[in-house]
Amino acid sequence: MHLRSVIFFLSVVTSVFGYNILFMGPFPAPSHWMWLESFVDGLLERGHHVTVVSNHKRKIQHENCTELIIDPPYDIPKYLPKSDIFKMRYASDFQNLQMWWNIGVNTTEHALNHPKVKSLIQMKTSPFDCLIMEQFFHESMLMFGHKFNIPVITAGTMGYADYMDHAMGLLTPLSHIPHLLLPYKDDMTFKQRAYNFYLSVYDNFWRRFHYFPLMQSQAEKHFANYIEGPLPLVRDLEKKVSLMLINSHRSIDIPRPTIAGLVNVGGIHIKPAKPLPSDIRDFINGAEHGVVYFSLGSYMKSTDMPKDKIKMLMDGFSRLKQRVIWKYEDENIKNLPKNVLVKKWMPQNDILAQKNVVLFMTHGGLFGSQEGIFWGKPMLCIPLYGDQHRNTIKAVQEGYALSAVLSQLTSDVLVEKINEVISNKRFSQKAKELSLRFRDNPISPKDEAMYWIEYIIRHKGAKHLKSKAVDMSLWEYLQLDIVFLYGGLALLGLYVSLKVLYRLVFWVYVKHNENSNFDKKVQ
Ligand SMILES: *[C@@H]1O[C@H](CO)[C@@H](O)[C@H](O)[C@H]1NC(C)=O
Ligand SMILES: *[C@@H]1O[C@H](CO)[C@@H](O)[C@H](O)[C@H]1NC(C)=O
User: Fold this and answer.
1) Where are the strands (E) in 78-150, listed by range?
2) What total of structural domains would you count in the chain?
3) pTM of the prediction?
4) Ligand 1 centroid from CA 260, angstroms
5) Is residue 313 part of a domain?
6) How far, in Å, CA of 68 to CA of 115, rounded?
């Protein structure tokens, strides 16, 4: 109760003053923005003024929100064709890393070239109290924090990455913390640990020597004319980030060593359920055997799927007892089975909140999976790209989901898997268990995020949340110098003792010989 009253008091205080916050979400994927928008909403609710750089206009204008919309957004599908994704072109973990870096450099460049963002770069004075930005391969934008001389907070949309630890002064223990691309748990086998070590070191090395130089030259190109003096290294700016708000939750993610400046706010985007539009509500309530909800998320469209896959899905759905709600972007689709409702946009959270929804068929995206977990729904995961494979493997391991591979899926297998997840009670029981765990918070993730953002501003960047280890060399951090010191001393000690021992033995031996010679002579 104490914390709550403090927060209530703060919300009263700040609504009088209201901070001026610069908020940047330059990555164009709608799902990322859906998560980040929860922060903007929270800040506005508390009376702050927010200047937002994003690709997505607010549905409802707000008097305290100034929007700088990157329009047109960077065209990701032009460079990463969606057809490749549906065909499941194989990408190794190493290719995935390269892809993230490329896409990060490109989307950041696109944003920095936009006139509205340029006008921010050209501002002479700083009206802002704090910069909040997505931590997703946009590090050159940390230069805004330097330019305006304000504390920087990042929001880790996709959960933890090792470099977040490093930026806070913590070396990720690779023995039990798998790389963010890997589906391993904290009990890796020897082989898994070996691969995890290799991938993590590879990531670290190329990030430092390939990716960061790109970010540095990008920052120089866009900021050099508008900042006095030499620009700092982007790499050093990352080490100055005050706070990282991370999409992770203790109930579903691997426990990891942490530090005060890393705060978990997983679940922040999940809102209380709102009433459904009447057609969806009636469709759900009229389903005698429950409802299957199917969506491939906001980026991949079901309409982009190959035709034979769409036919296969419809065939499978038509053989179910359940009704099916399908986020399908062409509402005029032909030959739709009677038990299927399609709509191009679905209030997903409100649908998942319904008791009568018995299965969530999903691509295994992080945000949707968290919603499914929150509402306790067993899942059938059909991962397509990125972290979806990893999320799916984890969901199956946890026991609340089955998985399917779209490129190999037949309608028979689809029906079989759907029936298995719905009829076998172990899936729904596990889902309910996880839901209880996921909801069990001392304070809501949103309130927690707001508390820490205001804390950082109140305490001018709150340097005390970060370990000084951030400036240590790896050599010092691992105490290798000390190991060498004591190791050296031990060796020296050993050497000296051996030397002494040798002398002693030699001396005794010589004495003995002398004595025996002496004895011989006497005889
Ligand atoms: C906008 O900010 C002012 C001052 O911070 C506050 O008094 C007002 O209530 C805010 N408006 C809304 C709609 O929240
Ligand atoms: C990034 O941009 C370059 C050229 O500007 C292009 O060749 C490349 O395919 C783009 N990569 C991604 C992942 O968007």
Assistant:
1) 130-134
2) 3
3) 0.90
4) 31
5) yes
6) 9
Cα 99 to ligand 2 centre (Å): 9
Confidence of residue 88 (pLDDT cuts 50, 70, 90): low
Are the C-beta atoms of 26 and 59 separated by less than 8 Å?
Answer: no
248 assigned to some structural domain: yes
334 pLDDT tier (thresholds 50, 70, 90): confident
Pair type for strands 323-327 and 291-295:
parallel
Average pLDDT, the chain: 92
Contact call for residues 234 and 158 (beta carbons, < 8 A) = no
| Ligand whose nearest atom lies closest to the CA of 106 | 2
Q: Give the C-alpha separation, 352 to 427, whole Å.
A: 16
Q: What is the predicted pLDDT for the residue at 89?
A: 57
Q: Count CA within 13 A, CB hemisphere, residue 384.
A: 22
Structure tokens at 324: 């099916």
Q: How far is CA 162 from CA 201, 455, 514, in A?
A: 10, 25, 69
Sign of CA dihedral 202, 206, 208, 211: negative
Show the ligand 2 pocket: residues with CB < 6 angstroms.
79-80, 99, 102-103, 106
CATH number at 188 reads 3.40.50
What integer pLDDT is reported at residue 510 of this predicted model? 87
CA 138 to ligand 2 center in whole angstroms: 15
- The reported pLDDT for the residue numbered 92 is 85
Task: Examine the domain organization and report whether 138 and 26 are in the same domain.
Answer: yes
